[in-house]
Amino acid sequence: MLRIILFIATNLAVMVLLTIVVKVTGLDVYAYNRNGINLQGLLIMAAVMGMGGSFISLAMSKWIAKASVGAQVIAEPRNPTETWLFQTVRHHAEKAGIGMPEIAIYDAPEMNAFATGASKNHALVAVSTGLLQSMDRPQVEAVLGHEITHVANGDMVTMALIQGVLNTFVIFFARVLGTLIDRAISGNREGGGGFAYFGIVIVLQIALGFLASLIVMAFSRWREFRADAGGARLAGRDSMISALQRLGGEDGQSTLPKAMQAFGITGERGIASLLRSHPPIPDRIAALREQTA
């Protein structure tokens, strides 16, 4: 429950901040005039809301991740397992050509790990206690290679950029279409601004947002194949396949919040395939086996 509250509160805070920015800069007034919508002004306002929200969330991603799952950053290794974890992440990071990420462990029964951060050289890699307890070291090494590859590929920034662009067009087209529909229904050529208009815009944003999610999730699934290939390069193909096979036998639900599931090794379960952030594990294993040794 605390994770859900934190997630909602963070998103509300971002939206309030962006609304204040739009009001203070006068973008809301610039976006609309006596004749209806100023398309240029509306696009600028939509970009501020869409791109701004996405990149503010990216900038806060490490803090959100730590707070959401209760991840404890390891400043110095305290036992042999943490020492090995440090050495493995450092080796992978050097091989991938990125800065040493922060390393954290969070208490959760499922086998999972995730990476996040606003840049390649200032990332966070976190692993669950369930993963450390349930996998052998070659498997964990492969999972860490997978997450380091996400960082090296700049997947967090790319996801934020794609989400921001799509958010911008969802906001823009929802308002343009909302104005046209409101005018057609009311017969008022000026249109916009009434309760009917705002109701139409909300419905359109939900519908367009759903379509945008399909695009984001398609990219997310594609990058998982790249991260698996990277994990195979860093830790060995057999280890990466073994890790995925181990993950494939787990039936538990992920405890990662929605905002972080796309950056985990397994992602969410039990939803339509087009809305999944991760491809089916058998498909990922098949892709690895098709690679040359």
Give structural attributes.
single chain, 293 residues, alpha+beta, two-stranded antiparallel sheet, 6 strands, elongated
Can you describe what's shown?
With 293 residues, this protein is α+β, with helices and mostly antiparallel strands. It has helices spanning 2-25, 27-31, 39-59, 61-69, 80-96, 129-134, 137-152, 155-186, 195-235, 237-248, 258-261, 281-290; strands at residues 32-33, 36-37, 72-73, 102-106, 113-116, 124-128. The protein has a 4-stranded mixed sheet, sandwiched between helices. It has a two-stranded antiparallel ribbon with strand order 1-2. A hairpin with a 2-residue loop joins strand 1 (32-33) and strand 2. Helix 5 packs parallel to helix 7 (137-152), helix 9 crosses helix 10 and helix 10 (237-248) packs antiparallel against helix 12. The protein starts with a helix and ends with a helix. 39% of the residues are buried. The mean pLDDT is 83.
Give a brief rundown of this model.
The chain has 293 residues and is of the alpha+beta class. Helices cover 67% and strands 7% of the residues.
- Largest sheet data: 4 strands, mixed
- Say how many strands there are: 6
What fraction strand? Answer: 5-15%
List low-pLDDT spans: none
Order of SSEs, N→C?
Answer: HHEEHHEHEEEHHHHHHH
Which overall shape is indicated by the principal axes computed on the Cα atoms?
A: elongated
Instruction: Report, as a whole number of angstroms, the end-to-end distance.
Output: 45 Å
* Secondary-structure content class: alpha+beta
**Count of helical stretches:** 12
For the largest sheet, list the strands in their spatial order.
3-4-6-5
Mean pLDDT: 83
Helix content: 55-70%
How large, in whole angstroms, is the Cα Rg?
22 Å
